[in-house]
């Protein structure tokens, strides 16, 4: 007898499938890598950021983020703007070309979500949306409660997730 997956396992599987579909769609349809899409999306969501702040927000190593940003600068999608208050600091922002690419990516990814929703009975659409709104709020609240990176303890780090 097969046991139903826990809510946590179900949520992780939904998130995994959604991200996998998005990555495949972005790679096949836009010529943008998943990393580039992540950087563009975060800069579009957050506005200008330093490299360190961007790296923390997307969860990539700073050197990995730097390489991804350099490629986007070379393509004309991201601009580096020196800080007016600290000459050592550079703020990253989307260029007009980057904003256009992000708009295209968002339309494509929203279309993918619409295609998934079409596979759910129409009378359930409002319930799905309401559940997603509650889940988003809960995850945002949880993210605000958690302090990352993990707190250091003797012999290693201790996860603050539990």
TrEMBL record:
InterPro entries: HTH_MarR-typ, WH-like_DNA-bd_sf, WH_DNA-bd_sf. Residues 7-137 form the HTH marR-type domain. GO terms for molecular function: DNA binding; DNA-binding transcription factor activity. The keyword Protease does not apply. It holds the Pfam family MarR_2. It comes from the Bacteria. Transmembrane segments: none annotated. The keyword Signal does not apply. Keywords: DNA-binding, Transcription, Transcription regulation. This is MarR family transcriptional regulator.
